[in-house]
User: Which sequence fits this backbone?
């Protein structure tokens, strides 16, 4: 069971790493300058923050759990909620200090989908 949990966590981390769309702060600043937009305006418009902050936020965790529960059609278990939290915190810890990303990302949907698929596979194997 522990090996299965570690495997799931590693799969989720790999998925998150592959799906992230981040930009270094300097790149984002150049893009904002090119568009004639202040950093403040660009950050507000794109809902951008440091990637480590976005990934570790309650907002992203809650959105992921909400999407998972929609797929499950019931409340997520404490273990499922803990898996979401663990993966997002681990992904946050792996980000460069100056990497930026938007709160508007596919990460919640992808993590929720993988957890749901994994749950269905585990249920099928147990039957």
Assistant:
């Amino acid at each position: 069971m522990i090996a299965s949990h570690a495997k799931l966590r590693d799969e989720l981390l790999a998925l998150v790493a592959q799906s992230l769309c981040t930009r270094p702060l300097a790149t984002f600043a150049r893009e904002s300058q090119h568009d004639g937009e202040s950093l403040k305006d660009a950050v507000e418009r794109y809902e951008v923050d440091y990637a480590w902050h976005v990934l570790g936020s309650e907002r992203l965790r809650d959105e992921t759990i909400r999407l998972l529960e929609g797929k499950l059609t019931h409340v997520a278990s404490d273990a499922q909620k803990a898996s979401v939290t663990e993966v997002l915190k681990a992904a946050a810890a792996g980000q460069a200090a100056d990497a930026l990303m938007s709160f508007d990302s596919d990460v919640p949907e992808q993590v929720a989908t993988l957890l749901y698929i994994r749950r269905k596979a585990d249920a099928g194997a147990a039957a």
Notes: The first helix runs from residue 2 to 19. The first strand starts at residue 23 and ends at 24. The chain has a mean pLDDT of 89.
